[in-house]
C-alpha cells in the first residue's frame, strides 16, 4: 500500500513552487519598462483589427519599446529623459511595428499619426477654460513662457524668442531638436513630421481667442521650426 504523504508536504511544495514562480514573474516584469499609451492604442487597434490581433500587436510594440529604451541615449537633464520615455520612444515603437505591418511607409505614417492624435490631443483639454478668463491670451502667454523654459530646455532644443509682446509670442528652434535627433538616430527621421503635425492639431484648438501659426518645421525639411501665437483679432488683421 502506498503511504499517504503528510498534508504539510504538499503545502510546502506548493509554497516553494509559488515563490519560485513569483520570483520568475517579478524578474521578467522588472525587465519591462511600462510604455505610456499602449492600452489606449490597443483599444483603438481593436476597432479595426479585432481584439486578438490588437493584443498581439500591442505585445510587439511593448517589446520594441523595451528594446528602444535599453538602447536610447540617457541624458543628464531629467526632462529630456521624460520626453524620450513618455513621447518619442512610444511613438517610435508604434511606428516601427506598424511599418512591418504595412506595405508602404506612407500607410504606416498615416496610422501612426491617427493613433498619436488620439492621446496627444488630450493636451488641449484645458484650452476651453481659457475662454472663461478676461484675457485668455495674457494667461496663455505667461503659461507658454513657463512651459518653454521648464519643459523644452537646452540642449534638447536650441530656442530663440523672436517676439514677446502683449499681442504675440513667437519663437524659433534652430539646429537642435531632441525629437528629430532621436528619431534620426534610430532610422526614422520621417516620423519627426508626424510629431510636428501634433502641434498643429493641438494648438489649432486655441482659436479664435488665440491663433497658432506653424509655418516652418525641421521635420518637414525647413531650416528651423517656427511657433507663433497671437491674439485672434491681431492675427486676423494681418
Brief overview:
The chain is of the alpha+beta class.
Kindly describe this structure.
The protein is 60% helix and 13% strand. It is globular, with a radius of gyration of 24 Å. The chain is built from ten helices and four strands, in the order αααααααββααββα. Helix 3 packs across helix 4 and helix 4 packs across helix 8. The chain is α+β, with helices and mostly antiparallel strands. The N terminus is likely disordered.
* Proportion of residues in β-strands: 5-15%
- Distance from N terminus to C terminus (CA atoms, Å) equals 99 Å
Strand order in the largest sheet: 1-2-4-3
Assembly category: single chain
Low-confidence stretches: 1-31
- How does the overall form come out from the CA principal axes? globular
Reported for the largest beta sheet, the result is: 4 strands, antiparallel
Question: Order of helices and strands, N to C?
Answer: HHHHHHHEEHHEEH
Rg from alpha-carbon coordinates: 24 Å
**Total helix count?**
10
Overall pLDDT metric: 86
The helical percent reads: 55-70%
- Helix/strand class: alpha+beta
Number of strands: 4
Amino acid at each position: 500500500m502506498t503511504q499517504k504523504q503528510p498534508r504539510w508536504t504538499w503545502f510546502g511544495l506548493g509554497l516553494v513552487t509559488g515563490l519560485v514562480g513569483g520570483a520568475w514573474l517579478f524578474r521578467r516584469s522588472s525587465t519591462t519598462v511600462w510604455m505610456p499609451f499602449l492600452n489606449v492604442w490597443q483599444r483603438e487597434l481593436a476597432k479595426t483589427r479585432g481584439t486578438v490581433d490588437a493584443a498581439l500587436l500591442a505585445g510587439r510594440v511593448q517589446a520594441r519599446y523595451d528594446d528602444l529604451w535599453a538602447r536610447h541615449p540617457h541624458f543628464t537633464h531629467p526632462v529630456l529623459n521624460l520626453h524620450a520615455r513618455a513621447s518619442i520612444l512610444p511613438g517610435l515603437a508604434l511606428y516601427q511595428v506598424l511599418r512591418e505591418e504595412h506595405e508602404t511607409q506612407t500607410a504606416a505614417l498615416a496610422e501612426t499619426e491617427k493613433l498619436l492624435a488620439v492621446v496627444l490631443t488630450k493636451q488641449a483639454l484645458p484650452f476651453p477654460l481659457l475662454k472663461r478668463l478676461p484675457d485668455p491670451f495674457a494667461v496663455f502667454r505667461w503659461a507658454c513662457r513657463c512651459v518653454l523654459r521648464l519643459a523644452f530646455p537646452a540642449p534638447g532644443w536650441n530656442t530663440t524668442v523672436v517676439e514677446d509682446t502683449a499681442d504675440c509670442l513667437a519663437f524659433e528652434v534652430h539646429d537642435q531638436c531632441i525629437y528629430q535627433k532621436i528619431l534620426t538616430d534610430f532610422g526614422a527621421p520621417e516620423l519627426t513630421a508626424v510629431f510636428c503635425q501634433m502641434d498643429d492639431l493641438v494648438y489649432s484648438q486655441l482659436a479664435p481667442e488665440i491663433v497658432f501659426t506653424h509655418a516652418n518645421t525641421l521635420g518637414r525639411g525647413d531650416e528651423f521650426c517656427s511657433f507663433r501665437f497671437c491674439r485672434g483679432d491681431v492675427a486676423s488683421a494681418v
